[in-house]
Specification:
Strand order of the largest sheet: 5-4-3-9-8-6
Helix content: 40-55%
Oligomer: single chain
CATH superfamily of the largest domain: GAF domain
Distance between the termini: 37 Å
Length: about 280
Amino acid sequence: MARPAPAVDRTVALLNFMSLHPDDPWSLSELARRLDLNKATAHAMLTALTDAGYVLRHPVDKTFTLGPAVIAVGNAAAVRQYEVVDFARGEMQALADEIGVRCIASAAIGEEIVFLAASGDPQPFGLHIQVGARLPLVPPLGTVFVAWSSPDEIDEWLRRLGPNATEDELQRFRDVVVTVRQRGYSLGLEVPAARGLMTPEGDRRRAFNELGHNEYVLLELEHSASYRLSHVAAPVFGPDGRVALSLNLMGFRHELRAEQVPELAARVTEATGRVTKAIHGKPPA
């Protein structure tokens, strides 16, 4: 088994944190505090990243922002997904206008979920998601990406829960994957922990822990019940039959009645179906 490399882990955490706030300049002290690093370690990391072009240092106020090398790497990794987004923009805008929510396009790149594009205006008190932000592809997140994957890939996704995951938890997430695959879309409930996902690293760890122990993915709709949804997500399939992109409706202003949810999901799956057809995608059997 490969030995851990703490320095690499710290560098990845630093870049991930800055990518969540791409427009914000950060001082050395603030980055060290947010990432729980001593200042000497943070300074050495930032110096190396600045020399390589992954970070820029302002010549006057000495703050740090993401550099052009990050953009080059991101473009190389996500070029296929960005091409798909171009085909999806019209459908995204139509969904946002018709339903009055935000439509977010995201893709699974490696072990992360990357937000690639957005249509519609963010709600004043809704979850704020920036294009370019990333989240770990860890249960319960990403069911729309793994539901059509191979058993080995699903097992790999489940292992990211860590060694302390119970058999009940693993089975619950397996049931979630089966449900998403059968109905063709994913439903997420609005829970307080979901808002912690787009926060600094320490808060995100707590949010993931809470999500893993709460009913976040909605499996069954109860007659006459109402639901506060965080998202409705459906897949766009590529020519290889794999999920190339997910379109996510977010920012619902009101609760939805049980009978409204399938109708809303049908609008999303119809849109993703048209994008799949436009890119000559092939939905799996």
